[in-house]
Structure formats: C-alpha cells, structure tokens
Amino acid sequence: MRVFFTYIYGRGETYTFGGRANKGWPLTFSNSSARSMARNIVSDGDLVFGVISSSPGHGAVVPEKQKGRLVSVWQVTRQNSLLTDYDIELSDYDLQWPYALQPIRTWEISDPPKFKSLDGYDSDTHTLRSVSSAEYVNETLAQSMLTVFKEQANEVALAAYKYSAMQQRNEALRQKHPVRIEGYTVPPSDRDALNFIYVATLGKGSKTLKIGHSTDPDGRVSSFNKYRVSSEPQWLIDVKQPLGTVQNAVRAEAALGEMFAAHRTEANNNEVYLGLSASDVLAKLATMK
C-alpha cells in the first residue's frame, strides 16, 4: 500500500468532516488525461489523501477554515468510472469533475489538519500534477498522513452504484484489499527513474495496441500475458522509447491518447487502441520534445 495526495475543492461552510452519515464520492478529475496520470501511478489498494485547494478554480468558493486542510482519504483502484455511474444527486458544478476512479473505501478526517503543518511537507510536495491528478509523497510526509489517518479517519459509506456489476466488483475488492496501516513502508518512487513509453501489439503485426509508460516495459507487458493461454495471441513489445522522468512519460502518454482518441475501444478506455499500427505511434513519438 502506497500513499499519494491530490487537491480537491471545498465543501459548504456548515459541512462537518468526519460525520458517519456523510456520503463518500469517488475520486474525481476534470478530464480523462488527469485521471490517466493518476491511474498510471497508483495500484489497487493504495491510499489517496484529499487536500482542499486554496484556489481550485472552476468558480469554486472555498471557506477560509477549509483551505489547505487534509480532509479525506480514498482507498483506490485503477478501474475507470464516471461520476454519473453513482446514484447521487449531481449539480452542474459537480459535473465539472466527471471522470473518476472507482474507490474501495472512503474516509473523512474528523479534525482536518493543515497539510503544510505536517512533518515531511517541503518545497517539493506541491506540484502541477498534484493540482489536477495525484502525486507521490515522501516517506516522512506519508508517515505523518498515516498517523492522522489512524487517529482521526472515519469511514463513510460509498455512494450507491447504479450498476450491480460495479457493486459486486467493489465487494470483491474489499475482501482482497484490507486496510493494514501498521508496518507500512514507502517503496522507492519511480519519480526519478528512467521511464519509457511502450507500445505492445496483441500478436505479431497486429493493429490492436496498448500504449503505456513504465520503468520496466518488458516486465509490464509480460504481466499482461499472465492469464492468457498459449493458444491466444500474446502481447508483444514493438516500441520502447525512453522519455526520462515519470512526468515526461505521463505527458507523452496523455498526448498520444489525444492524438489517437478515435482508435480507442471505448470512451473510457485509455490503454487499448484498434486499427492502429506501432509505426504510427513511433512516428508521433519521434516528433515529441
């Protein structure tokens, strides 16, 4: 289990954080690229802490007493969803953040502390990615956040799903990913490791592609074949393009996704593309700086 954070918009002046009657919403984003950035660095079961932004934009007015506070926690999955997949009353304001990751559990902090006051917060904590997506934290800050979690987090019931399949998947995930905070350690971040954009084809010469980024593209693509039987087409790496930092790789993957959006298998699928050749992707990569 790893720890991340993201900035979120505030609640009303009279909202009481940590109330058990509150309803937990999914972790939402304003666009699919921001969601993809988060999805590409988290794993099922990781924790994402929500910090209320002082100036979130979108016409949001944030109460002074809420600005910069650590208020909520999601145990996330990499499963794409939409805010409209949940049985909740939505305003036009809420729909400015329509893209979501399906959570396993949600919590609220009963007495939200100032994020900047936590041990481990430093000048590198706030990043552009944390504003729109999700960001790593250092080990000291992670331990500070987990201490707040252990002492003040109240689990709130997730908003109901409109679809039974999502509900069933969530129940299975709750069994598979219990919350174990004791003994938590922060694994090395891939923030400074060499990252690659990879293109994998489903069978040699196929025009069914996966586009992604990883510090270990061979291992990543090998994992795709773990549950494929030998008689099925296997995923094969066609392109491994070094891009430097994870930020560079995430930006490049998002840009490729926009370029080839018409080839996606469905509106919410940001990985698999149909009718596209690896050479087409490599040609676009060659023009990126």
Return the average pLDDT rounded to an integer. Answer: 85
> How many β-strand runs?
12
Classify the helix fraction into a percent range: 10-25%
Terminal Cα span? 34 Å
Biggest β-sheet: count, sense, barrel? 8 strands, mixed
Q: Structural class of the helix and strand makeup?
A: alpha+beta
Tell me about this structure.
Helix content is 25%, strand content 27%. It has 289 residues and is of the alpha+beta class. Strands 1, 2, 3, 4, 5, 6, 7 and 8 form an eight-stranded mixed sheet that branches. A four-stranded antiparallel sheet has the order 11-9-10-12, with helices on both faces. 34% of the residues are buried.
List the SSEs and their pairings:
Layout: E1 3-8, E2 23-24, E3 27-29, H1 32-39, E4 47-52, E5 70-82, E6 99-109, H2 128-132, E7 135-136, H3 139-152, E8 153-158, H4 164-176, E9 195-202, E10 208-214, H5 217-224, E11 235-244, H6 246-259, E12 272-274, H7 278-286
Parallel strand pairs: 1-4, 2-8
Antiparallel strand pairs: 1-7, 3-6, 4-5, 5-6, 6-8, 9-10, 9-11, 10-12
